[in-house]
Write a structure and sequence with these properties.
Largest sheet: 6 strands, mixed
Strand content: 15-25%
Number of helices: 6
Helix content: 25-40%
Radius of gyration: 15 Å
Number of strands: 6
Structural class: alpha/beta
Oligomer: single chain
């Protein structure tokens, strides 16, 4: 299974550059049953599988979906955790998360397609620069 983390877009409901890329990729992936979209729920401190949606855009922007708890025990060796969103801004400690899921054999892939906070840090908020750098 490939778990696609779209927490930042799901929570923020923004429609800026990163979110447009996340939604477009998610729409392309959503026709494949091997992809599950997840979002972190701060109240329960757990990831939720976004399910029962017509389009992922409607799930994200209109909350037309169900959220099912992703149990740690559901993760299997060979599964993939695919971070395609603004991972530096969702509040999840990647060091702890990655160590835990790698421990059961889950592979982690990150897609960071915007390096402005590193190459032109003066264009970004100081907190963004720090969070972005720590996400690597």
């Amino acid at each position: 299974m490939i778990y696609v983390n779209i927490t930042s877009t799901y929570q923020s409901k923004r429609r800026t550059g990163i979110q447009r890329v996340v939604v477009t990729l998610s729409e392309l992936f959503s026709s494949n049953v091997n992809y599950k979209f997840i979002t972190f729920d701060n109240k329960s401190m757990s990831f939720k599988i976004i399910s029962n949606y017509t389009t992922i855009s409607q799930a994200i922007y209109d909350n037309e979906c169900d959220l099912l708890t992703l149990k740690f025990s559901d993760l299997k060796k060979g599964d993939v955790f695919f971070d395609i969103d603004a991972a530096w801004s969702d509040g999840v400690n990647r060091k702890v998360l990655y160590e835990k899921i790698k421990g059961v054999g889950v592979r982690v892939y990150n897609l960071h397609y915007d390096c402005v906070p590193i190459v032109n840090s003066s264009w970004s908020h100081d907190n963004t620069v720090i969070s972005y750098t720590e996400a690597f």
